[in-house]
Amino acid sequence: MKLTFLGTRGEIEARTALHRMHSCLMVDGRVLVDCGADWLGKISALCPQAIILTHAHLDHAGGLKRGAPCPVYATAQTWAGLKRYPVRDREMIEPRRPVRIGDIEFEAFSVEHSLIAPAVGYRITADGVAVFYVPDLVSIPERHEGLSAVQLYIGDGASIIRPILRRRAEVFIGHASVRDQLDWCRDEGVSQAVITHCGSQIVKTDARTVAARIQTLGRERGVQVVIAHDGLKLMVHRTEHA
Q: Across 37-101, where does the E strand assignment appear?
């Protein structure tokens, strides 16, 4: 499975050459996962066959404000948040019901993140390889099911050590820390992780310094981890464990 991190910046003012564009992942050169507001007017040039959304926040879906050149897949809750967007070909995603786009399978898992824009993460499977992509979250209620036998976890880089949490109606909203997410990977036997949707703690810090800090967290948990940057390309291969 080929992954291209076209955008890795979260909803922050700061931007650098490494983290210039909002969240956007290309899978196997065909399917975009999210396209934030920075991508407005630029999506057609990417020639996607389809776009699939994690949730309706602007840094994940704002690039569709003028429509889309291809089918767009999202949950009913996400479509409710984007009802004014002129997207003609709207496809429905239901949590835990896999959908195939070409030869790539996407299975949505509901995650805690926002009450206004409920989010999902995706277990993405192709050619016997499974990755889990979840750029915005506090927690994954069905974490074991989502991460079981996954080769790569791609997670939320809003905060490194301390989670960013608020409580609304007995529910936590916000962002899990990178440290917490690496704990999940250790507990579920996921040996590789990539951090994207980068917040100020990553974007405003010297790249080598912050990479070393996060790699140390990974080594302590037996997880090989890197910070994604705009333009990063990864090939994820089938392993014997899979």
A: 50-52, 72-75, 90-93, 99-101
3-class SS at 194?
strand
- pLDDT per residue as tens digits for the range 40-97: 999 999 999 999 999 999 999 999 999 999 999 999 999 999 999 999 999 999 999 9
The residues, any chain, with a CB within 8 Å of residue 72's CB and separated by 6 or more, are 50, 51, 52, 53, 64, 87, 89, 90, 91
pLDDT in tens, 17-40: 999 999 999 999 999 999 999 999
Element (H, E) at 3: strand 2-7
- CA-to-CA dists, residue 120 to 53, 56, 76, 189, 224, angstroms: 8, 10, 11, 21, 24
Task: Label the pairing between strands 152-156 and 129-133.
Answer: parallel
- Closest alpha carbon to 87 in 95, 96, 78: 78
Alpha-helix runs per DSSP H in the chain = 58-61, 76-81, 143-147, 178-188, 200-203, 207-221
Domains and CATH numbers, the chain: 2-235 (3.60.15.10)
